Queue: 2 jobs
Job 1
Amino acid sequence: MFWKCPLTDERYVTQRAWEGAVLDGCPFHPEGGCGLERLGSYRRVEPPGAQIPRWWCPKQRQSISLLPSFLAARLRGTLADVERVVAMVEAAGGVSAAVDAVHPPDADKPVGFVGALRSIRRRVRAVRAALIAVVTLLPERFAGVSPTLAAFREVLGGEAVLVRLRELVQRHLGALPAPLGFRARAGG
Ligand SMILES: [Zn+2]
């Protein structure tokens, strides 16, 4: 489940917004009466200090997390972080060419070359799969658009493509792959 959280990622952390999060109803039992209960929250690695509120449905025997809409699903960080990395790869013309720009060797916490490649490839693949899925889901809007951020930025007019797409496709998030939606991807 996504939460249309109006805060930025910094304010989400400083205001501990997860403590006040409200789940309107159980996604499995919208009619209610299933005994939905708050299950506390769990910690995300990024952004540092962020926690994700969680509920438990005893009837479905499944937990429900409420991910604030600026955060990527199944990848570290925010959708803006993911978009920044993939945009750098597109600008550099390839993953290898983008490694030093994305993970500077003199960074505070340097990432080895192989680890950096793997992490960047994962983001590039995930975003491409998500964009392809968006074209399929919303052909009236995106038919013929190639699955790159550059092409989508042109169609939408500006950056923050992933954040805006998540709003456009919110009814389909269960069917969309990460980082936009929640669908698990084989081999992902
Ligand atoms: Zn329920």
Job 2
Amino acid sequence: MEKQIKGLIYDIRGFSVNDGPGIRKTIFLKGCPLRCSWCHNPESFEFSTRKWLRKEQTGSHIFNKMRILGKYYTADEIVEEIITDVPFFEQSSGGVTLSGGDPLAQPDFSYEVLKNCKQLNIHTCVDTSGYGNWQDFHRIATVTDLFLYDLKLADPAQHKKYTGRDNRSILENLMKLRHMNSEIHIRIPLVENITDTPENLDAIKRIITFIPGLKRIDLLPYHTIARRKYHRMNLPYKHENMPEYPLDKAEKIMLNFSSSAEMVTLGG
Ligand code: SF4
């Protein structure tokens, strides 16, 4: 019997409404080649399992419980999880979203899951940084209806400074992807004085003029929720004192992008 590729997953969430159209099942793959300084999901960084200390409560008793973060699944096992939600997908024009970490970093597993979902007529979406080689990207694009594609920093040196990688492959993949059949939505994180400078936002605006008929841009304002995760994981956090992203500033940026896509949202 052929041995199935396994993928490392750290979370599976049903009834998700912010990861593509309709009601979705979102599969969070573990492992990301980037290290964005503001990342809200530091538990997704490593390509391996890790111990995770979680506070739990029974009545008035609060205690620490150790759990292992990350579990290996075959593509068939994940598809079985996904198909339990098909009635909700059908009612809401929803489907499955692979997120992370980055699904492109486990390309064989992601391709298998997406291909099997397409065969079952399930709408497929991939949430990605866009970082990776085109060969893998192209294969995944043949079975993906929608990409949620991050554009963080247009300048390669700034991109490397704040994410650990330059953005060459990200921009090249985006320019190739626009010639394929998948729909693309652009996601821009708003981090004060890092991604929201006029120079960066203007440069991103210029890049997205190359995507004809862009339907949607999601602006993702920085929030502080992840801070506790870094503390619990004993990871350094570079934005200890950064407040939530100011709403008035985010709204102005939203207006500024209003002619760049059919729809511009705050928060995805
Ligand atoms: S690409 Fe996404 S998951 Fe990876 S480090 Fe950046 S924000 Fe986090």
